[in-house]
Each structure stands twice: as C-alpha cells, then as structure tokens.
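Ticket closed. Logging final result for Rad51-like C-terminal domain-containing protein.
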Amino acid sequence: CALPISRIYGGVEGEAVYIDTEGSFSPERCYTMAQALVKHVQASAARREQQRLMRQRQQQLTTTATAATTTKSLVPSWFNPNTILNGIHVFRVHDETSQTLTIKHLEQFIKGRQEDCLIQKERQ
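Final structure:
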C-alpha cells in the first residue's frame, strides 16, 4: 500500500491505475514527474509555513517568544518519488482481449489493494 498524497497538498489520498495499450508508458518520465511533484509540494508547504509564521509574528508583535523557522521538515519523509511510484499500477495490454480482462478485474484488484492497506494500517 503506497502512502497517498494528502488532500492538504492537493492529492486525492489514493493510488492510480494506468492501462498501457500502446507500450508507451515511460517509468523514467514518471519518476521525473514524481520528483517535480515532491519539489512542488515542499515549496508549497514552505510558503504556507512562512505565511503562518508571518501571521503569528503580526499577532505577537510585543511578545519575544515568536516561533523561529522550524527545523523539522514540513513534508513527511515518506513523501518521495519512490513512494509516489509505488502507488502507480501499470497494466500493459497487448490486444482487445487482455484489455477487456484487465478492465473486468480492476474492481477485484482495487478491493485487494484496499484490504492490503487496512492490514498494514492495523500493524502500525
């Protein structure tokens, strides 16, 4: 079970299925896009934190105990290109029959993924 992208960062808290009918799926390109997404989310989180700190400082102008820039990462350490790619499931189909069978079994695949996620969450 891949760790989903939180709604806070614009995610849908889920995984993706890609049915490749042409053989054109590029793992390298997908990895590059995942890297860009991680950088975007990190920058967005940093901007939000700066805005929060500015509001906090404005509210506490007379107080010297204003929070300094946090040293803790604003984005969870598990949020990286590899965990993003772990949530993308690629099915390569070569003909209409394999495409039809893939689509027919998607519901079963998704249910299996949901059960795996529940089991992993219970173990944590």
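Helices lie at 27-59, 81-86, 96-123. No further action required.
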